[in-house]
Amino acid sequence: MGRKRRASPRPAATKKRRSGRLRKEEKEKEEEEDDFEDKKPSVRKNSKAPARKKEEDCDTEVSNAAKTSKPSKQEKAKSQIKENKKNARNKENCIKEETCSDSLERPQKEMKLKAESPVKKEMAEDNTDNDDDDDDDDESEDEWEDVEELQEPATDKLEEAVVLPSVGLPSNPVEIEIETPEQVKKRERREKRKAEFEMYLRRMMKRFSKEVREDTHKVHLLCLLANGFYRNRVCSQPDLLAIGLSIVPARFTQVPAGQVGLVYLSNLVKWFVGTFTVNDELSTEKGEPLQSTLERRFAIYAAQDDEELVHIFLIILRALQLLCRLVLSFQPIPLKETRPKFQVKLQDQPLPTAIGEYKNHPLYALKRHLLKFQAIYPESAAILGYCRGEAVYSRDCIHTLHSRDTWLKQARVVRIGEVPYKMVRGFSNRARKARLAEPANRDQKDLALFGRWQTEEYQPPIAVDGKVPRNEYGNVYLFLPSMLPVGCVQLKLPNLNRVARKLNIDCAQAVTGFDFHGGYSHAVTDGYVVCEEYKEVLVAAWENEQAEIEKKEKEKREKRALGNWKLLTKGLLIRERLKQRYSIKTEPSAPDTEKGGGFSSDEEGAPSSESAVENTAIYWPQNRQLEKQEEKTTKKSKREKRGEAAQLFPFEKL
User: Fold this and answer.
1) H or E segment at 547?
2) With 0-12 CB in 10 A as exposed, 13-18 as middle and 19+ as buried, what is 473?
3) Which of 52, 325, 517, 630 is the most buried (most CB within 10 A)?
4) Beta bridge partners of 511
5) What is the pTM of this model?
């Protein structure tokens, strides 16, 4: 719909009204020009070269029109209003072109503001016209003419055209395939067979590579052993031993092998170091035997490297008939791949996508897989990525934490003022008893854990006035040699505390560890810690006591041996007495042939009646009866009975 605009005014009827209305229009014109001048620079700044040319053309046309036409004041005001509207329309067209060309670069808000600015001006003018219409109630509608209404630029449609790409229907036909249950089973069976075959190939390749590594390791180890035996045999050659013995000074050859001590060996080493040198510039011929090479080295008193120097020193020691051996460090090819190569392979691979793969991974770790005594340090560690929303950290950031007592076993103590890096529940007997005593603290985390960065090396205390510094339990923690108190020594002598107590010398047990058995931890001791100034006195006193103890044990052994011999002789005497008592009665009588018959004339081989009577007399019950009869006839005094009872065995006294 078009708007109605006032046509040419009536000169006579509405002169007064026009004069008042013209004043209002001039004021509104001035205000609109001010607003237009305020908005004009922003349009010029944002517009490009073509838009600027069009605006200049529009301005020139307006100025030319103003110069050519010289109407009255009322006509001038109307013409100026028309010119302002034309300028607004031209600028609107310019802005439309700019928005079309720069729609991708300029923000949406500027486009809407620039597009709406002329429309708002026209709406303001229409409002002024409506006010005038209210004043001019007498005027008819014939005085108005139709004017085309300005339309807002379709910026929303332009934006949608820019943002949304053109969507077209596919020209090619679309095929949809649906698998039947039989086809699904066949496909799954085929995939399963393929996976099993791949697994079989992978297993066979691993087995083959493992066998190759094992064979390579064994062959390399055998080669190293053969090389070691060869070198040992060369160092025992008589020619080389003779050369070495000829070089050694006479003061070393005159000492018997049984009298060699620490002083002798130290002097020999000093002489060898001062005589032989290492020269890297010495040449070795290819394929030359080791024996020939060592002979040439003996001639010049030099060696090419430390290996040859060791061989020369071993030859000299064997020439002096000292017990020594050649020690070689074998480093064969390992059975498994070394860790650096394995890590290099893993670093080339991307981050795992499954959470289970991060557990015990050599390079990466998740917080959920940390153990009780593990933590991530520093807290601001770099995050390498994410796996299902969980941060992935480097395995180098995972550190093991320990309590104060555990760090003390490694000769380290927690620094003063350090805050525990982590708190967990302790399971020692002391912690469990404390939780049982107070049910409210059962779930309380009472064990403080610290990292290595929170500890420092243990500084051993100093012994003062012959007193050994002790812990709260009266012992000395000696988990490592560096924990030995300053000015003290450790003596691994049994029962040294008894000797120290007799001599009134301070002595403390050395605790080297703990053993867990029977549900409790027990301290493991190894020797005693005493002050250094009492070492010789205690050692001498301990040796004297050990000599006395050994003497007493020897006397005890001799006494026990004499008692055993005495018991043996008593047994032999009792045996002889029993033999004398029962041997005559138990021996059979002489045969009857000596008395003159042998056999009766009546019946050959039959025993006679006399021999039968004599044989019955030797039986045990009859002998006991005879003895009882003799005991009854002969009475003995109590003293005699007591003396006889002393020589009887316990079973004979019954």
Assistant:
1) helix 535-586
2) exposed
3) 52
4) 477, 525
5) 0.44
